[in-house]
């Protein structure tokens, strides 16, 4: 090996020393790793593994063999494929603790070395059941992998690969808690992410929903699917939602940023809307006629209108008004019914944009009148679609008040 190769290898080893704060460690593990870092600085001590690969076919083959031997969940054909490594093998003990996609760096840690319950900042009584497949045994193994993002090749690897004896013997748990996020909570989270809501705002809204709608319960039994569902989301769920949205982009609406908001609303929701699915979901739209006027919008898909007839006709409908944006003066209410499994099913959305200057903004009785008007338009639309039948719910509850 040439002199400059030794230089780059040593230089890489020093620069690649990861911030162990990115790893999930106990205080004992942290001290052990710091001691190993100190020993590695002594001459002749080969404690950490360092591999550097060139662009040659042989070197890339060696890189793949190395990663296969270590069992890393990496797409060997396309290292930039993040979705592959997440779903390839759920029992893989290597977990991602940090990544820099722009520069192609990823930090992996052995699951046996992660004390997930101790690492959680949530009080024990509010924690989700730990779904870790492997028991914690204090393993110190970690690996930092670097790739060339543009060329999609492996460049470097550095880490501590001496798994503990208990880790070598460890097998996945057979009866670990299986939880899935409630589909409505998942959809609400995705919707908020698409509206560029901050992580803190999404978490706050989720906690408020749990407090108001579920009485503080975090896990409920889905009798239809015969499994438990959790309603509490974490920052990691929001990251997953952002990653999924990025990998599954939706067609962009034709919004002209040089025109006014009301012009774009007219293009989206007016009678000449070019979006067929959106146009079919519009029950009522009234644009603002002047500065002191309101903008009204009612949305309900065909499936939601069928659910309204099935569960809302001659029955109770709930109006949920916890969604508001304050400084944007936009208020959204969700119409919900209860199905045979005691689950809330959204059947429509009432939105109105308040005028810029009016003394009536804070008047609850004025808002009550607006909701009554929108609900009448909603009822008329559903009745008109069926011809002779009149859509007639028993009562619509709003803040413990009856509107209809």
Can you walk me through this structure?
It is a single chain. With 404 residues, the chain is an alpha+beta fold. The protein folds into three domains: 167 residues, no CATH class; 72 residues, no CATH class; 147 residues, no CATH class. Helices cover 36% and strands 21% of the residues. The strands form three sheets. A seven-stranded mixed β-sheet has the order 9-10-13-12-11-14-15. Strands 1-5-4-3-2 form a five-stranded antiparallel β-sheet, with helices on both faces. The longest helix is centred in the C-terminal third of the chain and has 23 residues. It starts with a helix and ends with a strand.
Which characteristics define this entry?
3 domains, five-stranded antiparallel sheet, 13 helices, elongated, disordered N terminus
